[in-house]
Amino acid sequence: MPLISMRAAVQYEPGEPMTVREVQLREPEHGEVLVRTSSVGICGTDLHFASGRFPYPMPTILGHEASGIVEQVGEGVTTFQAGDRVLVCDQMPCGRCGSCLSGRMVYCSDASGKQRQRSRLQINGQPFRQYLGVSAFAEMMLVDATGLIQIPDDVSFEAAALLGCCLTTGAATVFNTANLRPGQTVLIIGCGGVGLGASQAAGIAGATRIIAADLEPHRRDAAMRLGATHTIDPANADLLPAILDAAGGQGVDIAIEAVGQPHLAETAFAALAPGGHAIVVGMMPPGGEIRLPAALLRHGRRMAGSVMGEVRSLQDIPAYIRMVISGRLVADDLATSRWPLERVNEAFGHASARRGIRTMIEL
Hints:
Layout: E1 3-10, E2 19-26, E3 32-41, H1 44-51, E4 65-73, E5 85-88, H2 98-101, H3 112-116, E6 121-123, E7 126-128, E8 140-144, E9 148-150, H4 157-163, H5 166-178, E10 185-189, H6 193-205, E11 209-213, H7 217-225, E12 230-232, H8 239-246, E13 252-257, H9 262-270, E14 272-280, E15 302-305, H10 313-326, E16 335-340, H11 344-352, E17 358-362
Parallel strand pairs: 10-11, 10-13, 11-12, 13-14, 14-15, 16-17
Antiparallel strand pairs: 1-2, 2-6, 3-4, 3-8, 3-17, 4-5, 5-9, 6-7
Helix pairs in contact: 5-6
């Protein structure tokens, strides 16, 4: 099968700089789509794998929060054609397993996608593993058609990329996992892309108090612009008492941990009112433990993890796109810096330092 040569940022070892070089990508087979990359957000997940906090087979090409233009479609693909503007979501449901049929597509049990990910990329004739079915820090992406969603002309490629992961994760956590009801009080710990998606969704869903906690003042300011009614600087306040004070002393109904630190998940749970629900969407470190006071388990308090807010990607993301178009959901403002592929290592340093909100790679 003919191979396509392209430039990509290859991560050879965790904790080491990426190398921008030529790699080869095969042409699309049945059910696959070749996409020319336009914009990619640097997600916290990418930072974790790049640093080695979470193991992943290497070499690989990181990046999964992406958008672009369809170049070529494989056999059997009828929903896309060359020239379509699309976003990529790494949730690629098979539509046939029990999880998919029950509406919990993020827990799809079909493993065939992982097999396809082993055959798409090569360096000098040697295949290597694709990252999360996407590998977006490259001029081209070869993905399953079920991971693509068409975007209209009035949605920017940057906004679309963010809807491929962080904004959707935050919004879906509120709408799907939390099932937030009007009048409830919400706590959001971490005001990066996910947290700001959650704060906006909480306002849309009718929360009357939205408490946002983050160490960075510019992120707290962004949270206030995007729906939060109270903000807390954990560096200058004892976090749990400050949360309870902002909640009127009664605790919160919904608490979302969007950082990935066990002690923050414990704080989220401790801040719950009776019947409250704590949701962990931040990636917890391997081997990490969350300790919950037994007494607080009474009166209906509960904690759960959530993958991407249990998004039903092919149904929910088009709705979020319409919300962006109508102005109800802000996306473009979250893309606060832009870098070419050649400066990907500088961009990762910028993102690791939590400067701005979302650091973007533009191709």
